[in-house]
Amino acid sequence: LKVSRPWGWYEIVDEGEKFKVKRIIVKPNAKLSYQAHEFRNEHWVVVKGKATIIKEDQEIILNHDESLYIKKNTKHQLMNLENFDLEIIEVQTGEKVSEDDIIRFNDDYGRI
Question: Please, which residues bridge with residue 5 across strands?
Fold first, then answer.
């Protein structure tokens, strides 16, 4: 089941009591909100494309087969600044792995 978002889409590949695995596609020149999570950690692995990530005040570039771990309560943003799709696998772990655990600080699409 694909879930559409303004920046692309995701699908849940697997989930359990304290984990969730997603396949995420970010459209060219699109980005997710600058956000943090109170209850979950995220581990991103790039499987296609090039990810530009803001983690707190640091910019990180990830290419194919590279990964990044984001601890809960860490401000972060995933961006695709390229002209082709970015595909990542996201593994969420924590006490709560639901879509309502998002604190947005900045969003191009007006979401709160």
Answer: 8
Residue 87 and residue 49 in contact, taking contact as beta carbons nearer than 8 Å: yes
Question: What are the angstrom distances between the C-alpha of 13 and each of 3, 33, 89?
Answer: 12, 22, 9
Q: Measured between alpha carbons, how far is 96 from 110 in angstroms, rounded to an integer?
A: 25
CB-CB contact of 79 with 53 (8 Å): yes
Tokens found for residue 59: 């910019």
Find where tokens 């639901």 sit: 98
Identify the CA nearest to 68 among candidates 83, 52, 57, 82: 52
Q: What is the pLDDT of residues 66-96, one digit of tens each?
A: 999 999 999 999 999 999 999 999 999 999 9
Report the pLDDT value the prediction gives residue 60, as an integer from 0 to 100: 98
